[in-house]
Amino acid sequence: MARVFVYGTLKKGQPNYKHMINTAKGLAKFQGRGRTVEKYPLVIAGKYNIPYMLNIPGTGHHVAGEIYSVDDQMLQFLDEFEGCPDMYQRTLMSIEVVEWEGKGSAGETRAAAEGIMECFVYSTATYPPEWVGLPYYDSYDSSGKHGLSYVLRESR
């Protein structure tokens, strides 16, 4: 199992969460909530209002999200879903555990108790330069006060 940190449309209550609970795509087990140890710019960009974490460490906010344990099948699905490696790149990042529900190995439980763990995150280093000038968010909600509702793939 791999650990993945999701900060956008794949979180609970967001438009693409249905993929995280679709066992035909693999297994994803919610472990807890966290936030990036380093600051990153989280922007909403493009004509479909997609959330992107720009891979510019030290700029922006500590981005909030959810930590999942996923099997190889789900990780492969997520790579395809996230357009990896062209649109997003899957990289390891340090995530501070804010709230932990996960039941796992002693090592995982200890890592959670210590407060920081390494998780795969889909961020991007391949973005138009003007995105750096967009507003930065610390947390994503498709129906947030930003007014930039995400456009589902089936509606594009």
UniProtKB/TrEMBL annotation:
Q: Which residues form a coiled coil?
A: none
Q: Where is the Gamma-glutamylcyclotransferase AIG2-like domain?
A: 4-123
Question: What is any one of the record's Gene Ontology cellular component terms?
Answer: cytosol
Q: Please name the source species.
A: Baryphthengus martii
Protein name stated in the entry = Gamma-glutamylaminecyclotransferase
Q: Which GO terms describe its molecular function?
A: gamma-glutamylaminecyclotransferase activity; transferase activity
The cross-references to SUPFAM superfamilies, in alphabetical order and at most eight, read: Gamma-glutamyl cyclotransferase-like
UniProt keyword terms in alphabetical order = Lyase, Transferase
Function of this protein?
Answer: Catalyzes the formation of 5-oxo-L-proline from L-gamma-glutamyl-L-epsilon-lysine.
Catalytic positions are E82
Describe the reaction catalysed, as an equation: epsilon-(gamma-L-glutamyl)-L-lysine = 5-oxo-L-proline + L-lysine
- Top EC category: lyase
| Protein family (similarity comment) | Belongs to the gamma-glutamylcyclotransferase family.
EC number of this enzyme: 4.3.2.8
Its taxonomic placement starts with:
Eukaryota, Metazoa, Chordata, Craniata, Vertebrata
Q: Which GO terms describe its biological process?
A: modified amino acid catabolic process
| Gene giving rise to this polypeptide | Ggact
